[in-house]
Amino acid sequence: MKKSIIPFLLLTLSFPGSFSQNCNCVADFDWMVSTFKTNDAGFSYVIEKKGLDEYVKHTELSRQKAMQTDSMYACLKVMQDWLAFFRKGHIGIHPKGGYGQGSGNPQLSEKSKDSIRSLYKNEETVNLIESGLKDLLRVKAGETHPIEGVWKDNNYTIGIIRSAENSRKFTAFIIKADSIYWVPGQKKAELTLRDDSSFSMIYSMRDHSRKNETARIVGKSGNLLMMINTLWLKVYPEQELSQSDQLYIKLRSSTNPFLESLSRNTLYLRIPSFQYEQKTLIDSVLSKYDSLIRTKPNLIIDIRNGTGGSDLSFFQLLPYIYTQPLREIEMQYYATELNAEQYDDWANTIKDPAQSEYCRNVARKMRQNPGRFIVLDSSRVSIDSSYKAIQTPSRVAIICNQYNGSTDESFLLKAKQSLKVKVFGRPTFGVLDFSNIHIVESPDGLFNLIYCMTTSFRIPDFPIDGIGVQPDFFIDETIPEEDWVSYVQSVVER
Questions:
Q1: Is the pLDDT confidence value at 106 over 70?
Q2: What is the dihedral angle through the alpha carbons of 448, 451, 452, 458, rounded to the nearest 10 degrees?
Q3: Which helix H or strand E contains 231, and what residues bound it?
Q4: Average pLDDT of the chain?
Q5: SS (H, E, C) 282-328
Q6: Integer-rounded Cα radius of gyration of the chain
Q7: Using DSSP, how many helices (H) and how many strands (E) does the chain show?
Q8: Beta 381-384 vs 473-474: how paired, if at all?
Q9: Are residues 343 and 446 in the same domain?
Q10: Which of 124, 314, 316, 355 has the greatest CB tally within 10 Å of its CB?
Q11: Closest of 17, 12, 8, 9 to residue 446, by C-alpha
Q12: Is the dihedral of CA 361, 363, 368, 373 positive or negative?
């Protein structure tokens, strides 16, 4: 769809709901290879860059591995490795019903739950429960380190206690979790205090694989712990949160957009996601505060840790940043029957009549030109001059980071054409050259394959994949993430 991109997915996997299940790996592998090379818009581009010989060798080696396994998880790893040859985003192979961050647990049978627990039953444990940890901390009152206590995020409640043998080492253990992949008492992480007050950490992921990470206490209250791009809140011993910490928790935890006034001249707009389902909420916030936004000189738009989504979700933002006609490099569509079916499906679900008809036109033209790249008109560039420039806000700052991709990057490319916009933060993830993903199910129903149906005319001259959109103001590591908003505010208010 010309103006809409489905949420992008990284190659970050959760385990399948029944990963002890066997599969015909070579059949699944062959289906994936055939489906991907027949339908993916970026396949031929990568083959031209890396060479057919390298592709053939990579595929043959991967297929040999597939022939040697019937384990669903081992097969998944083989197929992931094959796909990694092509690009890092807008691509993937996942267990059906269990892909992507935040997917939680699919509906598991009791047998599947027991098989998962049995895999990890011999993990190291800590002989403490929540009440016992609290009693211990009360006894040690005045002698505890700020990291000791009970912490929570969306998935876990974790206790952290100092080692009796080494005062610089701490153990994190599960107090409450899903009781499938993790059960109370199991050791979740080891932390070692560094001289700069951060912690080196050996953290166990959902599958209990170890990962070396850094953790640090952030904010002014001492009640926030940042690790693996996740914010933890200390719930015991509890301390009063500062106003800035409250805002930081809100921007990290809220799944809906919101607007806050930072000062007499500066407004802060947080948009966690451009998913199409969020469009109504984004438009509602903008409509509610439209008159206020138009009277304030400074607007900060924070899209950090975005999810991608649909360009339609950010259209109502454009009037506030517009200063001159917006140029957009168009895309071409790879025509196959499977891709045409997806555009027909979109046409049946999108409420906007013009967008729905656009999808039907794409599907019709695809069926007329199988195996070719198509466009709906001859122009490779569109120019949008439908907006009228407004005087205020006169300064717009957009905050992004390395976790923004896809539609987030599409928004930034438009925003950077405005004379009133500056982008702050880090280079984005870099997944925009190939877009409009399609998710298809394997014949045996075990896997979902994700590939792309469109490619941008920007490449090869102006690639985003693997590079990202570059900020105007790079925020280096000396400015902690929790201070980014105040830093950006200080810049725009000068």
A1: no
A2: 150
A3: strand 230-236
A4: 90
A5: HHHHHHHCHHHHCCCCEEEEECCCCCCECHHHHHHHHHHHCCCCEEE
A6: 25
A7: 14, 21
A8: unpaired
A9: no
A10: 314
A11: 17
A12: positive
Distance CA 307, CA 34 (A): 29
Geometric angle at alpha carbon 142, from 136 and 145, rounded to 5°: 75
The CA distance from 257 to 273, in Å, is 8
What's the confidence (pLDDT) of residue 22?
Answer: 67
| Pair (253, 392) in one structural domain | yes
Residues constituting the chain = 494
Are the beta carbons of 242 and 227 closer than 8 angstroms? no
Distance in angstroms (rounded) separating the CA atoms of residues 403 and 489 = 22
Q: Containing domain of residue 17, as a range?
A: 1-120+437-456
Q: Looking at the structure, do residues 173 and 64 belong to the same domain, yes or no?
A: no
**Cα separation, 7 vs 3, whole angstroms:** 13
Verify that 108 and 47 share a domain, yes or no. Answer: yes
- Residue among 20, 145, 32 at smallest CA distance from 81: 32
Asked, for residue 125, whether it belongs to a domain, the answer is no
Alpha-carbon distance of 309 to 437, in angstroms, equals 11
User: Does residue 27 sit in the same domain as residue 114?
Assistant: yes
Same domain, 222 and 95: no
Sheet containing strand 258-261, edge to edge, reads: 258-261, 266-270, 298-302, 395-400, 421-425, 473-474
Q: Which two tokens stand for residue 172?
A: 């994190």
Note the pTM of the prediction, 2 decimals: 0.82
> Is 311 a residue whose pLDDT tops 60?
yes
Contact present, 277 and 258 (Cβ < 8 Å): no
Q: Is 396 part of a structural domain of the chain?
A: yes
> Dihedral sign, CA of 274, 278, 279, 284?
negative
pLDDT tens across 133-165, in order? 999 999 988 889 999 999 998 889 999 999 999
Q: In 119-229, which ranges are E strands?
A: 149-152, 157-162, 169-176, 187-193, 199-204, 210-218, 224-227
Closest residue by Cα to residue 103 from 27, 170, 204, 17: 17
Q: How far apart are CA 49 and CA 327, in angstroms?
A: 28
Same domain flag for 355 and 224: no
Give mean pLDDT, residues 18-41: 87
The proportion of the chain whose per-residue pLDDT surpasses 90, expressed as a percent, equals 74
Judge contact between 91 and 451, C-beta under 8 A. Answer: yes
**Is there a cis peptide before residue 146, judged by omega within 30 degrees of 0?**
no
User: Do 301 and 399 touch, CB atoms closer than 8 A?
Assistant: yes
Is there a contact between 8 and 407 (Cβ–Cβ < 8 Å)?
A: yes
